[in-house]
Amino acid sequence: MGHRLRPGDDGFRGPPASCLGRLLIVTETTADVRSSSADPISADLQASISATLAAFIDNKQAQLASLGADLTPLFDTARQAVAGGKRLRPAFAYWGWRAAGGSSSDTSAIVTAASAIELVHASALVHDDVMDGSATRRGRPAAQRGFGAMLPEATSAPQADRFGFSAAILLGDLLLSWSDELLGRSGFKPKRIARGRVYFDVLRCEVVAGQYLDVLAQASGRSSTAAAMRVVRYKSAKYTVERPLQFGAALAKADTSLLAALSSYGVPLGEAFQLRDDVLGVFGQPDVTGKPSGDDIREGKRTLLIARAF
Description:
Layout: H1 19-30, H2 43-63, H3 72-82, H4 88-99, H5 108-132, E1 136-137, E2 140-141, H6 143-149, H7 157-184, H8 190-220, H9 225-251, H10 256-283, H11 286-289, H12 295-298, H13 304-309
Antiparallel strand pairs: 1-2
Helix pairs in contact: 1-4, 2-3, 2-5, 4-5, 4-9, 5-7, 5-8, 6-7, 8-9, 9-10
């Protein structure tokens, strides 16, 4: 599927002697991703993931070409949804695989499997923007805004908004369904995929549960440190770091001790990542973060920052 990652490009010449060594590799590769202008994730790994996603979407569009040009905006917006970003989740999946002894000489299968997680992430972002009514995502119009703007000028604003939100919900559903298909196309043998799917399925379930808890707290107006941290853990920490690491490691047939070590490492790292993201969401520069500052406050989100303030 157009992978560009070359053997040895990750700078990882052989499996470390211990779980600690393996985890340090992941730490060094992903540290300080939000405050440094240098990109800590291999450019070739990012390019390989992007190429995989582009080829997959092109293939899906070709399959439905007989339906005509009306679907073109749907696929164009799908491409926009997977464009950009740090590719953190697939990167953690890749490094979980490497930490468990996965070879750097044949990366095609793990890159494809890891890219499936990026489709899950894209789906979550599209749906998140719908729920929040966000105007932008990564410096571009949010999916529902883009869909609404494509209608004729004579279309009433309520009609355009309704179509935009409806189309964005469908796009998010489509991206999520594609994630299953892409994982199945990874090239791993069925038994390997079954190992990884345990964590892939848990990842998808937990992020929905975390999002539900988030919107529940927002609607109810309840705010506490414990409730905010529960959302952080399930909406972000497990979904961003812990489960992708375990997913990749499971594909490499990791033992239970390594999977447990990855969990102990991944959850606090993921929590720290989300807490910093919450701070940037209030005090960050929109031209750097790609999203308006202060949205969390305007939307009444019960983040830890808000809980501690009140």
